[in-house]
Structures are given as C-alpha cells and as structure tokens.
Design brief:
single chain, about 300 residues, alpha/beta, two-stranded antiparallel ribbon, 8 helices, 15 strands, about 25% helix, about 30% strand, globular
C-alpha cells in the first residue's frame, strides 16, 4: 500500500479488545497470551472508551511482597570456578550475578529479601549484609541440611500475609516481576510457575509405524515444550502445603497442589532468560550482559 491507499484496505478488522466490564484482569490475560502491550477498551457500540497497558498501574511493587532467592547450591558443574566462590557470586557484567538479581528486584520496588544459603554462606553475608546500604532488608535462611527448592521456604521466620516471589539465584533475566504478580492475581492462582518455551529438532527422518507397518516418514520433526523457568509466585495457602524441614522440591509442591485441585497457573516468559548451569552458559551470560542490561562488562575469570 502507498500513502494514497484507503485506511479500510489496511486496518485490522478484528482487533483484540476488552469491555469495561471485563476490565484489567481479562486485558492482562490477553496481553500475555498474545504477547502485546496495549488493548483498547470498547463499549457495546464499538467505541473506544479507554486503554489498558501492560505497564499501566504497575509502578513500584508493594513493600508487602517478599522475595526469596535460592542460593544454597554447590554449583558443582561450574567447578573449579565454584571451589572458592558460590555460583550466585560469580561475576557477570562486572558484579556478582546475585547482585544483579537483587538490584533488578529493588529497582522494581521490592524491599524485603531472604537469601536461602548453605554452601559458603558467610560470603553472602559479607557481600550483602542486612541490605541497609541498598535501602532494602535482607534476611538469611540457613539450610543446615539440604531442603530442596521448596523445603527451604519452611525456614521463613513467619508466615507471609501476601504472595511471595521465589527465584533460583543462578538466573539472569529481564522479566518485569510486577507483571508476574499482576498475572498471578488475575488468574486467581495460589501458585504460579514461570515457564519457558523449549524446542528441539530430531536430526533424522522419523519412521511412523503401526505395528510393523510403515505408515509414513516425518522428516526432522520439531518438538516444542514449556519448561520450568525457576521463578514462582506462591500465595500463603500454597506455602502452607510445604512440610517443615523436609527435603521438598518445587515440582513436588506443584504436583501436590494440582492433585488437591488448588488453583495453579503458568506464566510464559518472553523476555531474556538464561539458566547459568554450565561454563558455556556463564560465558554466554557475560557476552549477553551489555546488550540486555545496557552495561559494559569488564569480567575476568573468577579465581
């Protein structure tokens, strides 16, 4: 089309909209589902009466929302780098990975943090202290024995009154956690798991069989899945389902909640996300950091 074309030739005749009655909860659901950032609000006559935006109303996070960062692992797959330094304290972008995570949350308004620690716990305390110099509050959950990614939450000093965010301390991501909280509330969920799209392609022609009969060949098929991204929102009711001081992982918790028909949800992450599990992941994170977070990286290998 050129500038002389009629608008009726190029306009979207079936736009995504919400009614005033459906409001923000439905708008949030549609925006996440369709990966869009704005949805018009229209009345019964099709007239625009408002606009819902993914960024609108998020502002700063409520101080009532706690953040728990799981940082107690050995990081064995990154040895010898982790022989002296825990994985979350390895440098990416010129500072420890966990510091980037904490700064991201603090920049979005979160103020109360708990670090679940075990291996070389004293190094975390030495680096972060009580968080006062950052304008936040940091407490520590000490795992004397390994309790798993959910079991450590039973060490919280008191039961929270609001949903909390739990995140693995070896992730680099640009997720807006305020949107995650909005989604959790809009879904009426007690437990929300962030998920990532994962695909793999079989490098061969796959034979399709019916018994011994060949019925066809699928050439190099691609398979797509959603996988656990290691970030969660848990409401107080979900936390109450975690046994005290017992080895218990997040997949076990979600399986238990699903079996009990407790409302759960999956939040698809479309933003940058990287699990730093191997040496090549660490190198990729160091290479990606300037582009994703806008900061030059002066990393050197950690001794």
């Amino acid at each position: 089309a050129n500038l002389g074309a009629s608008v009726v030739d190029i306009m979207n005749r079936r736009p995504t909209t919400v009614t005033p009655a459906e409001g923000r909860p439905e708008a949030l659901r549609l925006m996440r589902e369709k990966s869009i950032k704005q949805i018009p609000v229209v009345d019964a006559g099709g007239r625009v009466v408002g606009l819902e935006s993914l960024d609108a109303g998020s502002g700063k996070a409520s101080n009532d929302t706690w953040v728990v960062l799981m940082a107690g692992g050995l990081g064995s797959r990154l040895a010898p780098l982790t022989d002296e330094v825990p994985k979350p304290l390895l440098k990416v972008g010129g500072k420890p990975l966990l510091e980037t995570i904490v700064d991201a949350f603090a920049g979005q308004g979160f103020r109360r943090f708990f670090l679940s620690v075990n291996y070389k716990a004293e190094l975390f305390k030495a680096h972060f202290g009580d968080g006062g110099d950052r304008g936040i509050e940091i407490g520590y959950l000490h795992e004397d024995e390994r309790l798993g990614t959910a079991g450590a939450l039973s060490l919280l000093p008191e039961a929270p009154k609001h949903p909390i965010i739990v995140m693995n301390g070896d992730l680099l991501t640009s997720v807006d956690f305020r949107h995650l909280l909005d989604f959790h509330a809009a879904q009426g969920s007690e437990a929300t798991m962030c998920v990532r799209d994962y695909a793999f392609q079989v490098p061969y022609g796959v034979a399709l069989l019916d018994g011994q009969k060949l019925t066809g060949i699928s050439e190099k098929p691609r398979h797509d899945f959603f996988v656990n991204a290691g970030i969660y929102v848990l409401s107080p009711a979900a936390l109450a389902a975690i046994p005290a001081r017992t080895q218990f992982d997040m997949p076990q918790l979600f399986e238990k909640l699903i079996a009990e028909a407790t409302p759960t949800a999956a939040f698809p992450i479309r933003e940058y996300w990287l699990d730093i599990g191997h040496a090549e992941d660490l190198e990729r994170a160091r290479g990606d950091f300037p582009e994703v977070f806008g900061t030059s990286s002066d990393d050197v290998p950690d001794a």
